[in-house]
Design goal:
The structure is a single chain. This protein is about 45% helix and about 10% strand. It has 19 helices and 13 strands. The chain folds into two domains: about 250 residues, NAD(P)-binding Rossmann-like Domain (Rossmann fold), CATH 3.40.50.720; about 190 residues, N-(1-d-carboxylethyl)-l-norvaline Dehydrogenase, domain 2 (Orthogonal Bundle), CATH 1.10.1040.10.
Length: about 450
């Protein structure tokens, strides 16, 4: 079967890719970006008629995405899997693919390009190289960037590009971090402080917060075959997604930006309530189902949520522990949102693997769960279900040989010699890059964790 390309288009993109010029740089060209921001950006081009918002996507690690997209002229399809028949649409908004390890100078050149007005990021929590609420200046890659090499870290790339610009940028973090925009500004500020020089344009550079939501499981060979059947051509870069798609962006831009609001995005003065609801309800529940589901032997989230016990726990997590800590944004009914979360997780067509959701737990836990724990403890409550979720992570860390976590060595070293539930809990509570002193010193939290770890260990 022939390959998808500009010369082989059975289903044309909504906008002519040949007409698009690059106005956006995206750092972290993974499946999520291609199923989310790139889709909304293409819809915005259609709605507004503007052609200056093509995307230069940057792969931060390997050349795999570039090797998939280059023979296809940057085209790929999004395979939507809902309760009905699947559908495939071709997306053409990505006009250039750069691989940072191969050509870091080209990445900086693009960020510095005057035609580029917006940089977006989906590099996952660990990509920010943060520690203790700020930039990890002891990180060897950050140190190497600070010495003046062509930068390899996202903060180094942004700083190098900003240094060469004569006009400010809008930089939009789309990762699951609390107040992600202000947090990224803090990291870049600390990087410039370490350099000893800050460019004049930095003060006017904007870092709006944003919240993104779409379930994007890893693509399988079966998905590629399904897309080929629907399209009539082979697409090696297909991404899979649920029909649901949400993007909430703080309305604080340094200059022009795509007409995202015409494509379904919400521009708001305050992203925080949306962000907290998503992180604490959807993301925390997703992680809990991943850890408990994996411990029960379930391969996918959909399988886990069909387990009556786990389904009930997911509901209780949101209603008993999370909702009391939230102030809902206008237009969001938390009970209805919680029901939608469970319904989306139960979609059997997605096959989102528990191990995929469980990865990088040490950096996900603080932003998804531990804030809820702290708020419930401060209110004098005993956060039973959220503590079970944290305990499930602890047992998962203890029992999983290949953890797929940036702090795997540190976590395994902490557990060395720990076998009894109390020892496991104390060992992991002592990892200060995960748990803050107030949680580590909480007798209530520790007792809840020990009880849950004991029960989980006895069952496994």
């Amino acid at each position: 079967m022939s390959r998808l390309s500009l010369d082989n288009l059975p289903v044309a993109p909504s906008v002519d890719p040949r007409a698009l010029s690059v106005g956006i740089v995206h750092l972290g060209l993974g499946a999520f970006h291609r199923a989310h921001q790139a889709v909304i950006t293409e819809r915005a081009a259609v709605a507004s008629g503007e052609t200056r918002w093509g995307i230069a996507g940057v792969s931060q690690r390997s050349a795999n995405v570039r090797d998939q997209l280059a023979p296809q002229d940057g085209l790929y399809s999004v395979l939507e899997r809902g309760l009905g028949d699947p559908s495939a649409m071709v997306i053409g908004s990505i006009r250039e693919v750069l691989t940072a390890p191969e050509d870091p100078d080209a990445v900086v050149d693009r960020i510095a390009d005057p035609a580029v007005k917006v940089v977006t990021l989906t590099v996952t929590e660990k990509g920010y190289r943060a520690a203790n609420g700020g930039l990890d200046l002891d990180d060897p890659e950050i140190q190497a960037d600070l010495t003046g090499r062509p930068p390899r870290t996202v903060v180094g790339q942004l700083a190098a590009g900003l240094t060469r610009r004569t006009d400010p940028l809008t930089i939009v973090s789309c990762d699951n971090l609390v107040a992600n925009g202000p947090f990224l500004r803090k990291l870049v500020t600390e990087y410039f402080d370490a350099l000893g020089k800050t460019p004049d344009t930095f003060a006017a550079t904007k870092f709006p917060a944003s919240m993104v939501d779409r379930i994007v499981p890893a693509t399988t060979d079966a998905d590629r075959d399904e897309a080929a059947r629907l399209l009539g051509v082979r697409d090696e870069a297909v991404v899979v997604a649920e029909p649901f798609l949400q993007w909430v962006i703080e309305d604080d831009f340094a200059g022009d930006h795509p007409a995202w609001e015409q494509a379904g995005a919400v521009l708001t003065a305050d992203v925080a309530p949306w962000e907290q609801a998503k992180l604490r309800m959807l993301n925390a529940t997703h992680s809990m189902l991943a850890y408990l589901g994996a411990l029960k032997g379930y391969e996918t989230i959909a399988e886990a949520v069909r387990d009556d016990e786990l389904h009930h726990l997911a509901q209780r997590l949101m209603t008993e522990d999370v909702v009391p800590t939230l102030t809902p944004p206008d237009g969001l009914d938390l009970a209805e949102y919680g029901a939608t979360v469970i319904e989306r997780f139960a979609n059997p067509a997605l096959k989102h693997k528990t191990r995929q959701v469980a990865m990088d737990g040490s950096v996900k836990l603080p932003v998804r769960m531990l804030g809820t724990v702290a708020d419930r403890l401060a209110a004098g409550a005993e956060p039973q279900v959220i503590s079970l979720a944290v305990a499930a992570w602890m047992v998962y860390v203890q029992e999983t040989p290949d953890l797929d976590d940036p702090q795997e060595a540190k976590l395994k070293a902490a557990l060395d010699g720990a076998s009894e539930p109390g020892e496991v809990v104390d060992a992991l509570l002592g990892v200060d890059s995960v748990f803050t002193p107030d949680l580590r010193d909480s007798t209530v939290f520790r007792e809840l964790l020990v009880g849950h770890v004991t029960a989980l260990a006895a069952r496994s």
